[in-house]
Fold:
Amino acid sequence: MTTFTTTVESPVGRLVLCSDGRALTGLHLPPAAAGSDWRRDDGAEPFAAARKQLEEYFAGKRRTFTVPLAFGGTAFQRRGWEALLEIPWGETRSYADIAGRVGSPRGFRAVGLANGRNPIAIVVPCHRVIAADGTLGGYGGGLDRKRVLLGLEGVSTR
Structure:
């Protein structure tokens, strides 16, 4: 199956968007390694909507995304990513909070691993997950980008 791609410039660098032609399947922060089945197609669905919604998000005018999403991953990962979508703009949750939400209260490390494999960064807001002590924890795009994203949402970080 072909994965369509496009790029979007943002305050956190160039973003690589991926699509199956119907839904957003990826949003990668640099450096993103291209897949062998990736084909650049700036007009593929739903890139126009995704680009507009990302511009609005970075301008502080959008708090939720409505672009259609399609996840791969394991059942546990998908439950974790769905739980991320429930974290409101401008708020954070701990890895333990998400673990409890997905029915695995002691699975905070597994939640961390699933977060690290989140294929649709920013739209699926893994940047809103922090350590239980309030520190940032990890972020696949780097802690500087995580600080910027949280700052855009009015969240102060330690």
In short: The longest strand covers residues 3-8.
